[in-house]
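Sample entry copied in:
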Amino acid sequence: MRNPFSLYKKLTKQGPVWYARFWDEKAGRYALKRSTGVVAEGKRERRGEAERKAWEMLSEIRLEQKAPTGSWPSIWPTFGSPIRLTPGNAPSSGKGPFPPTTCGRTP
């Protein structure tokens, strides 16, 4: 099993900043790259701080992936309103959104 993320430095206007790339098991590659916001400075370049920040970011990413995109009451209106069939727009009438039915026969 791979580590869930790897750290690397990227040179920015602020100087070298730690970035984290996160491994996606389903895709089999690093799918997401984000800045930790930690400037790499000092003897140890604040790598420990960047790693703690990456672990926090990882837990947020996992929560985002597991969170539902909506509940049925909020999603349902996106499907549109149901079509109501009346004798005037029934499939066999040739009117309305449906073509006339032939039941396998030619009209």
